[in-house]
């Protein structure tokens, strides 16, 4: 075990790096402690996980043996510290676990550096804590520690609520952490202003998420923590028995087992998948309810997508210009627009057919995260996301308008006509949009097949019109539609000459 410090921006960050000869390269855990605690709050988990994982613990700024450089905003600084530390150690990808306020840091890191984070575990993270109640707690804690530079006395009051069955070992771990925490940093972090940004980040994440809560937690009870599922309905929510706020101290064996199972289940190969009936049932019901709600209630956001001859996206009237050239964003968004609701497996098959499912799903997760960030720049209606991600499904929510969907309906209606005069008028109107640059920038087999189908319909329509005008003696128009056929790579059985 190596116990160094890393100097970052004129400050020292204390960490512990537990290497493992038996752990794979991607089996890396980054553990982020809660407010007022330090890296020792994870000590009981280490012997249970270090055979399977390489583990990084650190003291956040102003906690444990880490200093405080006075830079703000403090949450951004802490996220930056972890990013620097991760790259200092040469870690490419990892699973991050955040406890309490440490969950805020983990959420922000997952949002900013989604390519690095394979999964996110949140333990008792107060994303939805009531503002008025929180303000009362803040005032109470400030008053309690007003006459002391140390938070030791505050720790003595809080510790019985942090652990359910307090052992002497756990009490010493917690008490020592409160002795060492920087009082200024503690109260810089202990407020409710982070909640909205955390909720926004969680909604945008497509990372596999595990939520752990203590069944006996009086600080942030399970009933309150479960509301987080409204932000991330695809997350797994588990309640740890006989545990309070610090479940990793109360029930380390259960917590280690559940984190390991969660991570392993996210890495199963395609041909080894075993589906849990209740999980599938829950996912299907949630998806159907979401779709039904969209039918029953008019969605708030208006989406207009032009793809026939140029690519344009308007959301609530605002043009979205940036970001479409990266991470298959354009392809993915248009596919979702056309399909409305699809499974993750289907998206993997369409856009990453040559990759194993676990790698394809990771690529999909990163692409969806990027897509959500592009759309964020639009003025979305409150609590109305456009890209809705669930455990098994991905959906588009909103009123959708597309030149292709309108044109597709025009073609379908034209092909149903039986009256010759109506058919001629409809066919000629359909061929006014003919182009040799259909679906520009959408280079994927799925869209190429649609292009081929449209061109085949155009050729059939052009052949009908060429034959019709040839029979009517209008050689000029007959020649016009014959040339359209030739442009599309088809030939008429007649050689029309003017």
Structure description:
- The chain starts with a strand and ends in an 11-residue tail after the last helix.
- Helix 5 runs antiparallel to helix 6 (168-180), helix 13 packs across helix 15 and helix 17 crosses helix 18.
- The protein has helices at residues 46-49, 74-88, 101-112, 131-144, 152-162, 168-180, 183-189, 195-204, 222-225, 247-250, 252-265, 277-296, 329-339, 344-351, 357-376, 403-416, 420-430, 445-471, 475-487, and strands spanning 5-7, 12-18, 28-32, 54-58, 94-99, 117-123, 209-214, 236-240, 302-306, 312-315, 318-319, 341-343, 387-389, 393-396, 399-402.
- The strands form 3 sheets. Strands 1-2-4-3-5-6-7-8 form an 8-stranded mixed beta sheet, with helices on both faces. The chain has a 4-stranded mixed beta sheet with strand order 11-10-9-15.
- Strand 1 and strand 2 (12-18) form a beta hairpin.
- It has 19 helices and 15 strands.
- It has 498 residues and is α/β, with parallel strands linked by helices.
Spell out the blueprint of helices and strands.
Blueprint: E1 5-7, E2 12-18, E3 28-32, H1 46-49, E4 54-58, H2 74-88, E5 94-99, H3 101-112, E6 117-123, H4 131-144, H5 152-162, H6 168-180, H7 183-189, H8 195-204, E7 209-214, H9 222-225, E8 236-240, H10 247-250, H11 252-265, H12 277-296, E9 302-306, E10 312-315, E11 318-319, H13 329-339, E12 341-343, H14 344-351, H15 357-376, E13 387-389, E14 393-396, E15 399-402, H16 403-416, H17 420-430, H18 445-471, H19 475-487
Parallel strand pairs: 3-4, 3-5, 5-6, 6-7, 7-8, 9-15
Antiparallel strand pairs: 1-2, 2-4, 9-10, 10-11, 12-14, 13-14
Helix pairs in contact: 2-3, 3-8, 5-6, 13-15, 14-15, 16-17, 17-18, 18-19
């Amino acid at each position: 075990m190596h116990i160094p410090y890393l100097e970052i921006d004129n400050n020292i960050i204390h960490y512990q790096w537990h290497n493992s000869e038996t752990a794979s390269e991607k089996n890396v855990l980054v553990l982020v402690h809660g407010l007022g605690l330090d890296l020792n709050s994870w000590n009981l988990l280490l012997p249970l996980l270090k055979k399977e994982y390489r583990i990084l613990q650190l003291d956040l700024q102003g906690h444990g043996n880490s200093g405080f450089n006075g830079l703000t905003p403090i949450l951004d600084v802490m996220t930056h510290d972890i990013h620097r530390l991760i790259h200092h150690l040469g870690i490419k990808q990892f699973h991050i676990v955040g406890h309490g306020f440490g969950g805020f840091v983990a959420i922000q890191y997952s949002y900013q550096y989604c390519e690095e984070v394979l999964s996110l575990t949140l333990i008792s993270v107060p994303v939805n804590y009531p503002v008025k109640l929180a303000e009362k707690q803040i005032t109470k804690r400030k008053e309690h520690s007003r006459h002391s530079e140390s938070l030791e006395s505050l720790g003595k009051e809080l510790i019985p609520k942090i652990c359910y069955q307090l052992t002497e070992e756990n009490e010493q771990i917690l008490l020592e952490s409160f002795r060492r925490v920087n009082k200024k940093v503690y109260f810089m972090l202990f407020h409710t202003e982070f909640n909205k940004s955390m909720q926004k980040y969680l909604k945008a994440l497509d990372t596999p998420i595990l939520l752990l809560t203590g069944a006996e937690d009086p600080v942030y009870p399970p009933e309150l923590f479960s509301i987080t599922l409204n932000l991330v309905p695809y997350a797994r929510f588990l309640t740890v028995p006989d545990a309070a706020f610090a479940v990793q101290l109360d029930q380390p064996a259960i917590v280690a087992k559940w984190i390991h199972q969660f991570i392993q289940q996210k890495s199963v190969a395609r041909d080894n998948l075993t589906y849990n009936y209740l999980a599938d049932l829950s996912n299907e019901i949630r998806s159907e309810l979401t779709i039904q709600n969209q039918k029953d209630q008019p969605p708030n956001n208006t989406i207009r997508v032009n793809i026939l001859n140029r690519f344009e996206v308007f959301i609530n009237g605002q043009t979205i210009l940036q970001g479409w050239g990266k991470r298959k964003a354009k392809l993915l968004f248009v596919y979702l627009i056309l399909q409305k609701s699809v499974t993750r497996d289907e998206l993997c098959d369409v856009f990453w057919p040559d990759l194993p499912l676990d790698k394809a799903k990771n690529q999909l997760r990163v692409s969806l995260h990027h897509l959500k960030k592009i759309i964020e720049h639009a003025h979305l209606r409150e609590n109305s996301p456009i890209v809705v991600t669930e455990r098994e499904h991905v959906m588009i929510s909103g009123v959708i308008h597309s030149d292709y969907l309108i044109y597709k309906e025009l073609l379908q209606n034209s092909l149903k006509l039986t009256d010759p005069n109506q058919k001629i008028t409809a066919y000629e109107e359909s061929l006014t949009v003919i182009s040799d640059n259909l679906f520009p920038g959408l280079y994927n087999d799925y869209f190429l097949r649609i292009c081929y189908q449209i061109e085949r319909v155009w050729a059939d329509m052009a052949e009908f019109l060429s034959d019709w005008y040839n029979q009517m003696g209008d050689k000029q128009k007959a020649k016009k539609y014959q040339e359209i056929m030739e442009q599309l790579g088809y030939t008429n059985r007649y050689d029309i000459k003017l």
